[in-house]
Specification:
five-stranded antiparallel β-sheet; Jelly Rolls; 238 residues; eight-stranded antiparallel β-sheet; binds magnesium ion
């Protein structure tokens, strides 16, 4: 993988047959400077997952106490301790969350990596893409390894940013996939996905088909960078 042409020429083809997973020749999203993050206080019918006060709604991947920390009211990834997930499943929902990559990105090739796994399986990428480039399906807001965001709406490292996501779980009839998952998402108020259907769970360099599951927790990724989160809430959809 070269610096000038990030990506892989030997990864599986995506189901559309047009591009490979992390295809180096896939067009990159256009960079659009947003006005800023969208901050929305939880509406009356929201379930608040994090408001700065405690981690009662979260657990570690093994079901123990969450290993991340609260600093100045922000939820901060404790690098190399593992992901955290909600104690309850979300199901179909409208999700709001705000996050910030580290102000000092250092000399990492891909700094500020974290992610939001809808239903524990389908990652919306978080990455510092202010000045850095990566393969198209790895940019912030990408359905990782599958669907690049419509635009690169990143703010400078250290700035607060927002995701607003409308999520529908896949539907199964026994072992049969009836309908894939679907999402619409905004990054800092800019539309990045409109009714996009993941091809299955998201993974690095690989392509995986759907496997039956019911409503599942929201999971946040520890990718060894101290990314911060705040104001996380959702509204279940009927
Ligand atoms: Mg990630």
């Amino acid at each position: 993988m070269s610096e000038e042409r990030p990506g892989f020429d030997d990864t599986p083809w995506l189901p559309t047959g047009e591009y490979r997973v992390h295809d180096p020749d896939r067009p990159h999203p256009t960079k659009v400077d947003p006005a800023g993050p969208v901050t929305i206080e939880p509406p009356a019918d929201a379930t608040v997952l994090f408001d700065g006060s405690d981690l009662d709604s979260w657990e570690s991947e093994d079901g123990g106490e969450p290993t991340w920390t609260i600093e100045d009211g922000d939820l901060v990834v404790e690098p190399k301790t593992g992901d955290i997930r909600t104690t309850e499943p979300l199901g179909d929902c409208q999700l709001h969350l705000e996050w910030a990559t580290p102000a000092d990105p250092g000399d990492a090739r891909y700094p500020g990596n974290s992610g939001v796994f809808m239903s524990d399986r389908y990652e919306l990428q978080i990455l510092d893409c202010w000045e850095k480039t990566i393969y198209a399906d790895g940019y912030t807001g990408a359905v990782y390894g599958q669907h690049p965001p419509g635009v690169n709406a990143c703010l400078p490292p250290g700035a607060w940013e927002s995701f607003d996501i409308v999520w529908h779980d896949p539907v199964f009839d026994g072992e049969e996939l009836v309908s894939p998952a679907a999402l619409t998402a905004f990054h800092n108020g800019l539309l990045i996905h409109e009714n996009v259907e993941p091809f299955g769970p998201t993974h690095y360099q690989t392509q995986q088909d759907y496997e039956p599951h019911g409503p599942a927790p929201l999971r946040l990724q520890d990718h060894s960078d101290p990314v911060r989160f705040r104001n996380i809430w959702y509204r279940p959809l009927e």
